[in-house]
Amino acid sequence: MSGLEIERKFLVHKWMDWKRLASSCSHIQQGYFAAVNTVRVRIRDDKGYLTIKGPSHNGGLSRYEFEKEITLQEAQQLMLLCESGVIDKHRYLVPYAGHTFEVDEFHGDNDGLVMAEVELKSENEPFESPDFIGKEVTGNRRFYNSHMRKNPFKLWRDTLPEEYR
């Protein structure tokens, strides 16, 4: 897949039972390469992906994304070339009111952080949020996976309200 990625990102209220709404769950590990743009390799269950993301526009709402599926073996080999700080998370897909929210539950140094993203067809597309959606963090670099590998949640978790940590 390649093209313009338009998404909004939110924190998830910890005390709400959002997992029961999920239609699927997958385990994701992703590493990053030194580059001007974001270049990552991802292992999602038993599949591999190579992704290149361009700079963000409109406050982090949109950016160009190129993604190509690669073999699991290729992804495992590329992970060995990545910089330190692998992102480890489970992703739950939660369909709601005509959209699918991707809810990421982080592990390792980012344990305790839960975020949701919704991809949109346009920057102004309206959508309805489920009750578990909290504060919007779209465009806040602190919540970019590529940033969290170097500045993990464990170092700044106390800066968030209790309901999000």
UniProtKB/TrEMBL annotation:
CYTH domain location: 3-150
Span of the signal peptide: none
Pfam family, one: CYTH
Cross-referenced CDD domains: CYTH-like_CthTTM-like_1
Catalytic residues, chain numbering: Y32 (proton acceptor)
PANTHER family: SLR0698 PROTEIN
Name this polypeptide is given: Adenylate cyclase
